[in-house]
Specification:
It contains 13 helices and 16 strands. The chain is α+β, with helices and mostly antiparallel strands. It folds into 4 domains: 119 residues, no CATH class; 128 residues, Dna Ligase, domain 1; 35 residues, no CATH class; 53 residues, no CATH class. β6 and β7 form a beta hairpin. α11 packs antiparallel against α12.
Length: 437
């Protein structure tokens, strides 16, 4: 459970609880699928309030944000007065919010989760040392720590860092740094300054589907441009320009380096929030993504991978999809089935692959063998076939007859009774003009 309402909470249901356990405590409860895009829309007023007080807000996910306050502390004449001002402003849009203050994001996050109102941490290392190892959010590694008798981050920090790094690799090294009160240190590298990804649109994008595919395309271009350097961003600034010239910006942060799916989702959530709150009047005419806080945990390129060609191809496909609509550009995925049309699972280009309707590795007796037809008309075309002793010998194609070179079948089909189809046989026939069913 990601969140519960007051009635469910009164019955004993708490966030993080298993769904079956929650429904046992509150049988009348109705479980809803989480929609992070809709949550981002509802979280936008909170971001607007905080941005009105302190610039450079960094969003991790709906309901969770970071903001650097060192400059604001001087402006508001003290940490306490600043926190009091933020809490007062937030009460109007999000009563019950929790604030954590610390030197690093990890400690600040757990400070907020450890209080019902506000907690100011004066010593990150001492505060973090008391946290349970589950706060690292690495289930497989946490299970090993517990097996070794390490239950708190303080106990983990007491272990030699080189030993943890040799046993758990880069994840173990990052965990030991957090346990020691050190947030992740960006790896210094010589990175060209022109790695921003930007796209302009001649016709303003106003439909949510169009904007969603535009977000996916630009996010993909950004990460592909970073791949030759073996890097990926922990923070990305999203900048959108409306048709009336208005420019909106927002920074999203991730504890792990962004991949294509996670970055696409966050850009899409942000654009949706702006559009549904009338923050992009007239439609989107420009989208720019700027990376920051780069990590060397990017994807390793294949030896002969042509990044430039891939970027251009995906850009062209994305543009066609934005113009023609999301259902006009599809990807095919093989799946199980007997007939050729049943052995393909279609989905929108750029979207996550759906689950297969039929298992690919099942035996499928009676499956049409190769070669598979390259064209399957929506409705079968009428062909005249000449038979000799039950064997197909010639097929009429237009005004000429083509001899049958080889054939296979028959495969008996029951027919779609709901369409008034009776049983029939399927043959595969090969002529000099090609194969046909």
């Amino acid at each position: 459970m990601a969140a519960v309402n007051d009635l469910a909470r009164d019955a004993g249901v708490v966030p993080g609880m298993d769904r079956r356990q929650a429904e046992g405590l509150c049988p009348t409860a109705k479980s809803l699928d989480r929609d992070l895009g809709a949550e981002t829309v509802r979280f936008e007023p909170v971001l607007a309030v905080v941005e009105g007080l302190i610039p450079r807000v960094e969003v991790v996910e709906p309901g969770w944000l970071f903001v650097p306050i060192s400059g604001a502390v001087k402006y508001y004449r003290g940490e306490d007065s600043l926190i009091e001002r933020i809490a007062k402003e937030l009460d109007g849009v999000a009563p019950g919010g929790r604030l954590g203050v610390a030197d690093g994001p990890f400690a600040a996050h757990w400070a907020a989760r450890s209080t019902d109102s506000t907690l100011i941490v004066t010593n990150d290392a001492a505060f973090v040392a008391e946290l349970d190892v589950s706060s690292l959010d690495r289930d497989d590694m946490v299970a090993t720590f517990r097996w070794l008798g390490v239950t708190t981050l303080g106990q983990l920090a007491a272990l030699p860092r080189e030993t943890i790094a040799s046993r758990f690799g880069s994840q173990g090294l990052a965990a030991h740094r957090l346990a020691s009160g050190e947030d992740r240190i960006p790896t210094p590298r010589d990175i060209p300054p022109d790695l921003d990804a930007e796209e302009r649109y001649e016709e303003p994008l106003q439909l949510l589907d169009q904007v969603g595919f535009a977000a996916r395309s630009v996010a993909n271009r950004l990460l592909v441009a970073l791949q030759p350097y073996g890097i990926a961003p922990h923070r990305v600034e999203v900048e959108a320009q409306a048709a009336d010239g208005k420019i909106r910006t927002r920074v999203w942060r991730s504890a792990d380096p962004f991949d294509e799916q996670s970055l696409s989702d966050r850009v899409w959530w942000q654009l949706r929030a702006w559009i549904e709150s009338a923050g992009i009047p007239g439609g989107l005419i420009r989208l720019r993504l700027a990376p920051a806080d780069l990590s060397d945990e990017g994807r390793q390129l294949a030896l002969f991978e042509d990044v430039a060609a891939r970027v251009e191809a995906e850009r062209a496909v994305s543009r066609a999809q934005a113009i023609l609509g999301p259902d006009a550009v599809l990807e095919a995925r093989p799946q199980g089935g007997r007939d050729p049309q049943d052995r393909v699972r279609w989905h929108r280009w750029g979207e996550e692959e759906p689950d297969l309707e039929r298992e690919l590795d099942a035996p499928w007796p009676g499956r049409i063998p190769d070669p598979a037809p390259t064209l399957i008309p929506p409705e079968p075309k009428l062909l005249e076939v000449e038979w000799d002793a039950g064997l197909p010998v010639r097929v009429r194609l237009g005004s000429r007859w083509e001899p049958v070179l080889s054939w296979a079948g028959p495969w008996r089909r029951i027919g779609k009774w709901w369409k008034s189809e009776g049983p029939f046989d399927v043959y595969q026939i090969v002529t000099s003009a090609g194969a046909m069913l």
